[in-house]
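cron nightly-structures :: item 1 of 1
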Amino acid sequence: MKRLLLFVVLLAGILSANATDIWEGTHDVTWENTVSIEADKFASVKVGDFIIVDLSFSEEDVIELKSNGQRLPGTLYTRRGTDYTRHVAYITAAMLAQLQTYGLEVCGNHFTLSKVSYADGKNNVHEGAIWTGYFWIDEWKTMELWKEALPADLSDYKEMIIYHEANRTDYVLNIRANWDPAGIISDKGSHLTKYATYAVLDLSEVDVAGIMTATGSDRLLVQGNKEDGEPFNMTEIVLVRKSYHRAVTAGRYGTICLPYAASATSGAEFYSILGKEVDGGGALTNLWFEQAESLEAGVPYLFKATASELTVTYTGAVANEPDNSSSNGLVGAYAEAEIAKSDDNYILYNNELYKVGSNTYKVGANRAYFDISSMSVYDPDSAPAPGRKRVSLATSGHNTATAIGLIETDNAGVWYDMLGRPVKHPAEGGVYIQNGKKIIVNR
């Protein structure tokens, strides 16, 4: 219970410090007499922020948040008593799209609305999150997620991941469409693999959409029990697609950082950073890259598009947070985030590297930026890497480093042995690397 009380105290502090009011007054809400808030009030809201609805109940009843006549995707069935004075909903990508297009409607019965606001909330909400927030799991607590959060067709998805803060595996999570036997999706661990900070429902083993439709359910029920351990928060429900897709332009460079490892890729060549090159006075001159043979979960990469669409087919490996410890200066993000102001930070935009400096730049979701200060120094003469590429950082007048489209393949046509050493005369029958490809020499 201490963790829950601490969260309530912290939440109160956040609200008082960061909340932006978008409606204030006194309105007795009924199903026929709702409150609507225009879409432009949500122009500055971002994924991970939360909506705060201040109210007072005259009797026990429900409150619903709607948009365009439909329940907001990512909101919960909420029925509270007369002591319920604040309703909070954390914003998912689908919810934000509705709010910024159609606005918000506060609906329900038997309560008086006094204020609606929003505040900064979570960072790094996972791509594919259908709910995010904090739901306290004690003894057989049940979260009821409105079905609007779920796509009608789940055939393109492979997993549902439920993130939590238990930090152990001796807990219980049951997933249902309703309380009838026909509504069971996962019971006593069926189709569910539990980990210390999340649980994975295998969607290839259970037809969630079919069960929801067959039972006529309007809610997805997630029931939890702490068992013998301490209570904990459930923090996110994420649907994982079988693959990641991005529209790109052939010949252009981009960055990518995905929470899942890749079993196959198409539409791009991927690169890791070898390091930075400096001149005799220590001034930065070049960045060096080498082609990556596979994509690891949470690790950011540079890529060069070779088609109009980039596709990455996921494996089961998952990283809850970007792993920037081994990326040698590439800093990945799962969600859009502002980049720290620094002359050492660069953002890739429109095939050019821009120095952040004192400017306000954001890195997009599943992308990365460059932190030159954390890159290791690379000596291209002492540590040759077959098929490596470089970009010159000769600063121009508009605070951009250079057109990254000028990245060059280093020593094209040069032969290397399997240890990366240049070879002038490859021997017949030997195995060598040329232009990044393994070649057997036949005379």
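cron nightly-structures :: done
The chain has four domains: 1-125, 135-241, 243-409, 411-443.
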